[in-house]
Amino acid sequence: MTIDQTLLDKLAHLARLELSAAVEATMCQDLSKIATWIEKLTQVDTQEVTSAANLPVTQPIMREDMPQTPLPHASGLSNAPRTDSHYFRVPKVQDR
């Protein structure tokens, strides 16, 4: 599978990335290699492999809750696509 410029532009928009022309060329090549590798994985014969769904469920190990300094307000809003004063700006959601 090859990643063309249109698909790369769409992915960059969704990830909120601004890529230079030099980086775009490298990114297209790298993503195409990754997609080709994933296509090869779909050809692997897994008929003899047992399902992992029968594994015993274990309780996750939780770390101790430790107080930390909070993230500065400006840093928290720095990657938001839209802000309004000190808040995230999101589209209006209406309930029927």
Walkthrough of the structure:
It is a single chain. With 96 residues, the chain is mainly α. Helix content is 38%, strand content 4%. It is built from three helices and two strands; from the N terminus they run H-H-H-E-E. A two-stranded antiparallel ribbon has the order 1-2. Strand 1 (83-84) and strand 2 (87-88) form a beta hairpin. The longest helix has 21 residues, at 21-41. The chain is extended and about 55 Å long. The model has no long low-confidence stretch (mean pLDDT 88).
Structure described in brief:
Helix content is about 40%, strand content about 5%.
Averaged pLDDT: 88
Helix/strand structural class: mainly alpha
Strand segment count:
2
- Please report the distance between the alpha carbons of the first and last residues: 42 Å
**Basic shape:** extended
Q: For the largest beta sheet, what order do the strands appear in spatially? A: 1-2
Low-pLDDT residue spans: none
- Gyration radius over CA: 22 Å
- In helices, the fraction of residues equals 25-40%
Strand content: under 5%
Discrete helix count: 3
Biggest pleated sheet: 2 strands, antiparallel
Q: What are the secondary-structure elements, in order, as H or E?
A: HHHEE
Give the key terms:
96 residues; 4% strand; mainly alpha; single chain; 2 strands; two-stranded antiparallel ribbon
Write the layout of secondary structure elements.
Elements: H1 5-14, H2 21-41, H3 73-77, E1 83-84, E2 87-88
Antiparallel strand pairs: 1-2
